[in-house]
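task queued by scheduler; priority normal; single chain, no ligands, no partner chains; default sampling; output format set to structure tokens
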Amino acid sequence: TKLILLDSLLQEKKMTNLTRFTEVSRKIVAVGRNYSEHAAELGNAVPTKPLLFMKPPSAYITAGQKIEIPLGCAEIHHEIELGVIINKQCKRVEKAQAMDYVGGYCLALDMTARDFQNEAKAKGHPWAMAKMFDTSLPVSPFIPLQSVPDPHNVSLWCKVNGEIRQEGNTKDMIFNLPTLISFISQYFTLEEGDMILTGTPSGVGPVKQGDVITGGIPGVMEISFDVVQRS
């Protein structure tokens, strides 16, 4: 009985940690160009293996906080994505076991300073300034596994000031979750509370000061964030 109780307490603590993922996360591994239509709209080739970049936990914001356009940025874009929350240390795992490491999900916006990114790409420089700035990762509360029975059939939408901008479904991802988790874990050890951003469908576009970005997974979660110019 003591062992069962201990196990129950440990599971409860783990779930509490996962619901607090924005506080316990040590890294966010993001996947670029994981929807072919999005790759095409930005004039990029469809990748033959996952294209990875990182965002720091300091980029997270949650309900009530605002997206700040970074200094010197003239074009900031919304990108709606499904986030995958890792539930335990995940290192060099096979595809067949990969989903055992998923503890839940979230709805996320991968805010991108597109002018910074285009300048960096043209020079062959890293994208850090375009992707890692403060407030560049607005997220929903934790979404438990049972709310997303099939993560490869999740509808995502994003609106700006009530006007639909993005509508997509995770079934159109180029690399599915087991592929992404296994691939990433060959290079980076993922830890409890870490997140994988799985890529955005087509329809990305600019927002400006005063805009309101909303996003949703129908029947599961909605988010809303105001955009302001950093003073």
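post-processing summary
- The CA atoms of residues 87 and 101 lie 5 Å apart.
- The chain has a mean pLDDT of 94.
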